[in-house]
């Protein structure tokens, strides 16, 4: 395990700048959208026309622009249900750069849009610092976006994902998989290991490296995946729930790290760098199927690491989690399972083991005078250090005796 200690000065400078069937869908461009300088964010949402979807995406767009600036981003909406009329013509003209309308799913929409823009003046590689593929059931309004982007840059990773809080990561996993009882794993299975040292604010700390040993994929994930492949003894939905439970546990913010290099970032809200785009959408030829993108996130980190010779190809940002509302919109089908199985067979050597490769601490511990302050939504990102809140509660209790 690699543990790296970096203090805050570099981040504070970087974080304040943003830079950077028919299965065919119809692409339309909003010509009235204002021109923008290069190296922005592309905010890409697949959306239906439900009122809660419209309200949440609009709320997120408003928040992102209020934090990062009106010219920070381009918005692209892929309407798999409904059309732009459902969103209000004035809002659409003011906010949406491009849109798709037709059947599909997020990464198929994204691949089609990427290919259309390729070799043009508005190619994604030349226009955007990151392409942010967002699910519609995310509430970003409590997330520190400048810090999220600053740490994404510091990670030097090709794909970066936020960690998640909320209903989307509170799954209680079943006790049995494939007819066998699962042994409980310690929470520290994927937690960073190795000695942790601290220094004063004025003291410059050089990165400290401790050799990392790769661990085998968790038996939980292996068993769950095997059930999906064999589809026997237990239903496919039950087995997928087990795997999803393991993934959600992995994607909760680690109290020990500001961010982690990992071999997994889920499809829910990844930031794709320009270097990742051609590899994901061109080179990984069988990773995105016509009927599903299941399996893509299980292989893209190691696939990128292999193609780019870049071991820290993926990262999860622990210090700035996103609220996952978990509307459970995706309905599992045989096509999803078939796509997952095909990716497994063709790219098995790249399959994720849900491993933490390094734990990075960028900022020192934050002094909080009143423990109740940590309960405020805007301060939850302060709970980053293991045992910090418990120790503060104990100290406060002792002070009142």
UniProtKB/TrEMBL annotation:
The keyword Signal is assigned to this record: yes
Annotated Basic residues bias: 183-201
Region (Disordered): 183-217
Signal peptide extent: 1-17
Keyword entries, A-Z: Signal
Protein name: Uncharacterized protein
Organism whose genome encodes this protein: Symbiodinium pilosum (Dinoflagellate)
């Amino acid at each position: 395990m690699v543990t790296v200690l970096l203090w805050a000065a570099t981040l504070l400078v970087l974080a304040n700048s943003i830079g950077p069937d028919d299965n065919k869908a119809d692409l339309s461009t909003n010509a009235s959208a204002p021109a923008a300088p290069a190296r922005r964010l592309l905010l890409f949402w697949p959306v239906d026309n439900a009122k809660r979807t419209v309200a949440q995406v609009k709320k997120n767009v408003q928040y992102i622009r209020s934090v990062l600036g009106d010219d920070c981003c381009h918005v692209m909406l892929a309407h798999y249900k409904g059309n732009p009329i459902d969103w209000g013509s004035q809002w659409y003209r003011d906010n949406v750069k491009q849109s798709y309308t037709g059947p599909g799913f997020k990464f198929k929409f994204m691949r089609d849009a990427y290919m259309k823009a390729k070799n043009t003046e508005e190619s994604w590689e030349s226009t955007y610092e990151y392409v942010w593929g967002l699910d519609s059931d995310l509430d970003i309004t409590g997330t520190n976006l400048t810090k999220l982007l600053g740490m994404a840059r510091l990670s030097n990773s090709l794909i970066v994902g936020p960690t998640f809080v909320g209903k989307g990561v509170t799954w209680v996993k079943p006790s049995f998989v494939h007819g066998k009882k699962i042994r409980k794993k310690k929470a520290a299975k994927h937690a960073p290991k190795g000695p942790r040292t601290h220094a004063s604010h004025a003291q410059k700390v050089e990165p400290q490296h401790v050799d990392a040993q790769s661990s085998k994929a968790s038996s939980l994930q292996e068993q769950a995946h095997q059930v999906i492949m064999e589809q026997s003894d237990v239903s496919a939905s039950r087995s997928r729930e087990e795997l999803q439970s393991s993934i959600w546990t992995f994607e909760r913010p680690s109290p020990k790290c500001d961010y982690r290099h990992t071999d997994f970032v889920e499809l829910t809200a990844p930031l794709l760098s320009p270097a990742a785009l051609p590899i994901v959408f061109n080179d990984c030829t069988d990773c995105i199927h016509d009927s599903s993108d299941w399996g893509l996130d299980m292989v893209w980190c190691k696939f990128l690491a292999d193609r780019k010779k870049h071991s820290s190809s993926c990262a999860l940002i622990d210090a700035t989690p996103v609220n996952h509302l978990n509307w459970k919109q995706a309905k599992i089908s045989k096509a999803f399972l078939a796509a997952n199985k095909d990716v497994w067979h063709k790219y098995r050597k790249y399959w994720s083991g849900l491993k933490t490769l390094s734990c990075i601490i960028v900022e020192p511990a934050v002094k909080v005078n009143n423990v109740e302050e940590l309960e405020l939504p805007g301060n939850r990102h302060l709970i980053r250090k293991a045992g910090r809140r418990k120790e503060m509660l104990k100290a406060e209790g002792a002070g009142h005796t």
